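Below is a filled-in request sheet from our internal design queue. Each sheet records the structural input a requester submitted and the sequence that came back. We keep these sheets so that new team members can see what a complete request looks like end to end.

REQUESTER: design group, bay 2
PRIORITY: normal
MODE: inverse folding
CHAIN LENGTH: 976
BACKBONE (tokenized):
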């Protein structure tokens, strides 16, 4: 009989909770996870790997999940409870529980999950698990021990051969006599409660399948460890006289089973089922679907899809790729039993925008309610996502997940949720049946990070859509290739979308997926899709198909491209200077109205361009020119040309709340005219938006003209997608805007060749800029046919036999680019998980100690979260009006912050690129001490801004002065 005095949970409880109680709870929750969360495809893969039918495989996995905390039956763990509950743990003085604790002290501390890993192979062997059949790592019992040993997020090293028969020889800290007997009794009791699950007569599962099972174990443990779950089960225990007997354990299990499904629903876990129908059934508001949408819908629905596969779609911006992907996902997911969807995008801004579209699609087409999460580092700041919960929920703590602290547990040994739904907590969002987020959230699944089993579990049950597949550097692209290999191996349907993807890269992405799905098969040739076009390849069969006939685009047009070779100077009177070219391009909007975007390479360039334009318009329209001031009521009422064009600046270096204000105003001016709240400047007074790349992908904006700094061809074409973007209904165009036009400002030297300013840094590779400029020059001003010329232009930039006007310079720059790409790809290969077919043990999958919050899957993209703090004689403030006090602590118990308070502080935070200024920070830049308890606040760097009669005086750090300006954002200037 099990000894119910052995404690499994203690901290935070009035009474300790028996180990056997938690083992049973976890097992029963696991059964509900199997039924309600895992997709049919996931269940099939696990059952097939075990050689069992679905019902038996379910009970086996439940049994494993229950055994995860068996290692708590050891002296060190129970002695830890003894220190806090000496009265309860008096039984440890009994003879059977005697143990050489002095030897333990010399050996050091052993965590309970490592004890589970050591003890389990012998216990499973005693139940009949095979002990032969290859090397140790190929034994199922050893693999299960590694899965359970990783239930706190990090897989242990491979087992020792002694663990199969004499684990005490390797780890005497486990305890002998009553300790060993109770580990066996607990194992056998759980085995009986679950109806004696079958013993799989097989070797170890494929490691990628084992990783999914590990995710199931972690989730089951987390759900069963919630405080209110344990307290409910303690009442069941209290109502029984002889808890620990087999009948009493069955009663306990029955109650846990009744609770399990509602607990998962409460947590937001489950499946997402979309209605089945034609494209028009899922998108009834689209009266006339685009040819691309109809082609993919007819192609996929007309084929008997029976397994996972990959769909690659390439088409111009605005041809309906998003709806195409959502419809294709519903078909592809149904074909292989996937029941969820993750939509991955390149930036937080694109993810935020997609979140709203996804919500609308889900409401229209879900058969039953399902949770949808937004996944990126600032998701809590996106109001449409952050606000749905009632105000009271923002201050009420969520049920805690209880975990007794052990030495070596580190910061996150005690996992707690403080406000917001269960899924919003760190690392859990990918488990939601529906998710929208940045691509980094998926890429971290192929980095050896703690708890990446949760990403493997979350992704393996979904269809994954990757948008803007062209928008990544060599490092991220290499990680994307590895991710596609893993998704192929996991049987995950994938949809790739791109507006500007080279043929070679397109084929490489598809091949990576197919290699992961069938690594031992011969290489498969997949045609590059036409442009616009698509290609579908089945994961394991030879099924490959594409449109029966070439697709036409509803957005066919001629794009005029004016290339101006300019000296990179802001001198307004220099005829060949950059500023003069900008002013010349803006004559129409200044004189007759209209809408224009000026896209700059860096934030500093955008700020300087904006200031130069503001100075120019002040000199032209007088000192009373207020077109730049969004707070001016007087200016807001004027629509006459004499008021001068409205002028705005948008980039990433604004605090979140300010950027949201500017973005909302831009959408109200340049958004679709049939959307509520949009009032496009249509009179004689125009509007100019100076911006960085933030408007390339994230915003659905339409301009009469786009002026852009030189950028690689693919990016220029992406920006051109914002010129005359909205066709139905078409906005009113000014007389000067006779055709879609892109003005490109190319910095050149006296010799006429490319001369990139130092201020651009390494934003773009010089060889791509040179190739782009020369290709455009070779066209001699001939307009670009969209989409007809797009693919040839994108491919032409990367042509091996590129004929250059400056070949020596190009060879040098190409060499640097290729070397840089090779180095980045090699680094990605070095840090990423190995290809799935090369994984033989789970241990390498979690070897990194990196904090996922600090992981940057884009090399060199690390930024620091900074908070401008305004100081005067009355204190420190979040705003320059000095009306919102900087909170030294939260309003909660012991100074803790509620999520609403954290969100308010974060709304004033802005990103700033890491640099020498960061190493120069001192005590004045550290946040208040109470912030250290809040993970989202602890790493913020304060930037004191001194308020004076003459204005704001910024922070001096190293050789820089960093100042916050409401109109310009964060301004970084060298002090000299």
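RETURNED SEQUENCE:
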């Amino acid at each position: 009989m099990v000894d119910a005095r052995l404690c499994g949970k203690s901290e935070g409880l009035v009474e300790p909770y028996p180990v056997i109680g938690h083992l049973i709870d976890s097992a029963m929750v696991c059964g509900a996870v199997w039924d309600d969360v895992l997709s049919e495809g996931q269940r099939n893969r696990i059952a097939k790997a075990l050689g069992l039918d679905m019902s038996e495989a379910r009970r086996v996995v439940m049994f494993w999940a229950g055994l995860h905390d068996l290692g708590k039956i050891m002296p060190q763990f129970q002695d830890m409870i003894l220190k806090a509950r000496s009265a309860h743990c008096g039984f440890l003085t009994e003879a059977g529980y005697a143990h050489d604790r002095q030897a333990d002290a010399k050996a050091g501390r052993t965590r309970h999950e490592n004890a589970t890993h050591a003890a389990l192979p012998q216990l499973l062997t005693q139940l009949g698990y095979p002990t032969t059949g290859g090397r140790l790592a190929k034994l199922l019992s050893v693999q299960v021990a590694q899965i359970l040993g990783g239930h706190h997020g990090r897989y242990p090293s491979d087992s020792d051969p002694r663990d199969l028969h004499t684990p005490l020889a390797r780890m005497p800290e486990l305890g002998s006599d009553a300790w060993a007997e109770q580990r066996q009794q607990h194992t056998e009791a759980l085995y009986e409660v679950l109806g004696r699950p079958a013993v799989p007569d097989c070797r170890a599962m494929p490691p990628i399948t084992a990783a999914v099972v590990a995710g199931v174990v972690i989730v089951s443990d987390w759900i069963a460890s919630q405080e209110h779950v344990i307290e409910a089960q303690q009442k069941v225990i209290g109502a029984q006289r002889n808890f620990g007997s087999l009948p009493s354990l069955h009663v306990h299990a029955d109650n846990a089973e009744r609770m399990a499904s509602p607990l998962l629903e409460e947590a937001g876990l489950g499946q997402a089922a979309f209605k089945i129908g034609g494209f028009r059934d899922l998108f009834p508001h689209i009266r006339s679907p685009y040819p691309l949408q109809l082609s993919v819908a007819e192609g996929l629905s007309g084929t008997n899809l029976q397994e996972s596969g990959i769909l690659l779609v390439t088409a111009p911006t605005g041809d309906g790729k998003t709806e195409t992907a959502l419809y294709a996902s519903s078909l592809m997911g149904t074909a292989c039993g996937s029941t969820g969807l993750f939509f991955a995008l390149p930036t937080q801004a694109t993810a935020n925008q997609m979140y709203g579209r996804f919500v609308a699609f889900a409401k229209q087409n879900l058969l039953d309610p399902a949770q949808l999460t937004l996944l990126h580092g600032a998701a809590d700041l996106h109001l449409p996502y952050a606000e749905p919960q009632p105000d009271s929920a923002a201050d009420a703590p969520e049920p805690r997940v209880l975990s007794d602290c052990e030495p070596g547990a580190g910061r996150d040994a005690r996992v707690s949720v403080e406000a917001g739904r269960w899924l919003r907590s760190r690392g859990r969002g990918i488990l939601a049946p529906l998710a929208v987020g940045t691509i980094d959230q998926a890429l971290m699944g192929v980095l050896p990070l703690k708890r990446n089993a949760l990403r493997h579990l979350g992704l393996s049950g979904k269809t994954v859509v990757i948008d803007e597949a062209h928008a990544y550097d060599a490092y991220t692209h290499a990680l994307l290739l590895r991710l596609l290999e893993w998704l192929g191996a996991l049987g995950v349907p994938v949809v790739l979308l791109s507006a500007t993807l080279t043929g070679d890269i397109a084929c490489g992405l598809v091949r990576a997926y197919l290699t992961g799905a069938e690594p031992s098969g011969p290489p498969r040739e997949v045609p590059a899709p036409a442009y616009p076009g698509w290609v579908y390849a089945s994961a394991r069969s030879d099924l490959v198909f594409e449109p029966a006939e070439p697709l036409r685009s509803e957005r066919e047009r001629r794009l005029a491209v004016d290339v101006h070779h300019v000296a990179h100077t802001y001198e307004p009177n220099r005829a060949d200077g950059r500023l003069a070219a900008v002013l010349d391009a803006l004559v129409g909007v200044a004189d007759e109205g209209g809408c224009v975007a000026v896209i700059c390479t860096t934030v500093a360039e955008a700020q300087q361009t904006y200031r130069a334009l503001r100075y120019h318009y002040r000199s032209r329209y007088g000192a009373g020119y207020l077109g730049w001031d969004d707070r001016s009521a007087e200016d807001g009422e004027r629509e006459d040309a004499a008021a001068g064009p409205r002028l705005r600046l948008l980039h990433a270096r604004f605090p979140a709340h300010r950027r949201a204000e500017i973005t909302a105003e831009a959408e109200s001016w340049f958004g679709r005219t049939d959307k509520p709240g949009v009032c496009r400047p249509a009179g004689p007074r125009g509007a100019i938006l100076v911006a960085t790349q933030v408007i390339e992908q994230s915003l659905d904006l339409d301009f009469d003209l786009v002026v852009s700094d030189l950028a690689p061809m693919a990016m220029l074409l992406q920006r051109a997608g914002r010129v005359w973007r909205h066709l139905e209904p078409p906005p009113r165009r000014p007389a000067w805007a006779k055709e879609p036009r892109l003005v490109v400002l190319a910095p050149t030297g006296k010799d006429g060749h490319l001369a990139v300013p130092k201020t651009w840094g390494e934003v773009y590779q010089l060889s791509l800029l040179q190739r782009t400029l020369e290709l455009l020059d070779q066209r001699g001003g001939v307009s670009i046919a969209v989409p007809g010329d797009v693919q040839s232009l994108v491919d032409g930039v990367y042509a091996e036999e590129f004929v250059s006007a400056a070949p020596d310079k190009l060879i040098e720059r190409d060499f640097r680019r290729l070397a840089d790409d090779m180095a980045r790809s090699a680094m990605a290969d070095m840090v990423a998980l190995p290809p799935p077919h090369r994984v033989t043990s789970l241990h390498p999958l979690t070897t990194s100690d990196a904090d996922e919050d600090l992981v940057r899957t884009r090399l060199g993209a690390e930024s620091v979260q900074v908070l401008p703090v305004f100081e005067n004689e009355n204190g420190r403030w979040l705003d320059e009006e000095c009306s919102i006090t900087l909170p030294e602590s939260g309003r909660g118990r012991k100074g803790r912050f509620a999520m609403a308070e954290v969100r308010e502080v974060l709304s004033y935070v802005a990103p700033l690129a890491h640099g020498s200024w960061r190493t120069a920070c001192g005590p004045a830049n550290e946040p208040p001490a109470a912030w250290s308890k809040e993970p989202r606040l602890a790493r913020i760097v304060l930037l004191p801004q001194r308020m004076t009669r003459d204005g704001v005086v910024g922070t001096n750090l190293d050789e820089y002065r960093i100042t916050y300006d409401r109109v310009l954002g964060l301004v970084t200037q060298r002090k000299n």
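SHEET NOTES:
- DSSP finds 35 helices and 25 strands in the chain.
- The longest strand covers residues 557-566.
FILED BY: M.R.
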